[in-house]
Automatic annotation (TrEMBL):
Subunit structure of this chain's protein: Homodimer.
Entry keyword Lyase: yes
Gene this chain is encoded by: lysA
Active site, renumbered: C355 (proton donor)
Lineage of producing organism: Bacteria, Pseudomonadati, Planctomycetota, Planctomycetia, Gemmatales
Species for this entry: Telmatocola sphagniphila
The protein's name: Diaminopimelate decarboxylase
Signal sequence region: none
GO term, biological process aspect, one: lysine biosynthetic process via diaminopimelate
Amino acid sequence: MDHFRYVNRELFCEEVPVRELAEKYGTPLYVYSQATLLHHLSEIQTAFASAKPVVCFSIKTNFNHHISKLMAQHGSGFDVTSGGELYRALAAGGTGDKIVFAGVGKTDEEMKYGLGNNVLLFNVESEQELHALGAVAQSMGKVAPVALRVNPDLPPKTHVKTDTSVKGVKFGLDIETILDVAQGVVGHPGLSIVGLHMHLGSPILSNEPYKAGGEKGLKLIAELRKQGHPIKFLNMGGGFGIHYRKQEALPAKAFADVILPIVKEANCQLVLEPGRFIVGNAGILLGRVIFTKESGGKHYIIQDAAMNDLIRPTLYDSFHRIWPTHPAADLPAPPEDYEAEIPQTFKQNVVGPVCESGDFLAKDRNLPKVQRGDLLAVFSAGAYGMAMSSNYNSRLRAAEVLVTGGKHRLIRRRETYQDLLAPELDCK
Ligand SMILES: Cc1ncc(COP(=O)(O)O)c(C=O)c1O
Ligand SMILES: N[C@@H](CCCC[NH3+])C(=O)O
């Protein structure tokens, strides 16, 4: 469910017309619906309730402090992948017992930071990391709780740049070598191998990979226990897909249907690391049309949201629905099928002002004619949108607004020109 809908040809977020938000806070602007966020978190909590999972919101998808606080207040823990993310998780009220620390390149300092805050699990991705973590833990008089991350070597599931469980990616321990690595640390005084972790890729639109990965995991857990490792946790990661193009994603229950029997058979505590599923459809990006032009036979809409605000189309050729916030009387709300003939539309490229040919939000998209000053909504932008934004071209990062019911509040102010220079001016 999401709470962005057209009423009388005007786009609302919950009970607020988004035009009001653009007028008050300016553009480009990220707008989030609190009801959608909490609905998706609770959909996961409910679907997996019988296993009493530790749900760790993957903070990399959207690290806004106010969103993290909402997550913590509603029972979520955090999946973090850097010292900075751990800092944010703790600042939002997260506690170590519900934090998992992932990442292929944790530094000694980051390991110390995690150990000092008693994180639930370190998801360990290589033999060197395992030994380094053991040494750091010993130097602190601690034992590090470890979930070994396995790369279960499954067929491709998603975009080549975001598939994390095919052979040859940098993530996890190869399924062929993980048991040897585990054997090498039996009895290590600084390590306790208490879990198995996998994160298959993102976004995934089928539950089959979770079944296949989980079944491989079951065999590994049995072998690890034979080696003497007290495996208590099965962390199935994140990756649950969302609706980008149309109603194409599975409900959380479909993932629970395949994961719950595996966790039961493994006799483990389930850990999950969903990100996109919770926040992806809870956010839109608003851009205002600056100019339109024709060039080389193509029609361009140049608006003020660019690749530095939302890099997913540039990076992965990702599809985000885009539609005017005030479509004309005879235009529908965003169409189900942009490839089909839509009356009064023609193929246009939606681009930003950045000096790169790759700066686009949509290519050859059926869209109606727009004018200077019109507002466009880019849908499903709540995950990996603001989080992957940058100051490229010295553009100011967008503001973020959270809507709940008929109320709205700024949760990140727009950057200023002074913000751009500040870290440099700190260096005299
Ligand atoms: C280890 C790990 N866990 C969780 C996630 C979150 O994935 P998603 O946002 O698709 O749920 C990611 C990102 O893909 C990840 O790398
Ligand atoms: N950042 C990606 C997915 C990678 C997830 C991180 N492991 C996206 O925008 O879809």
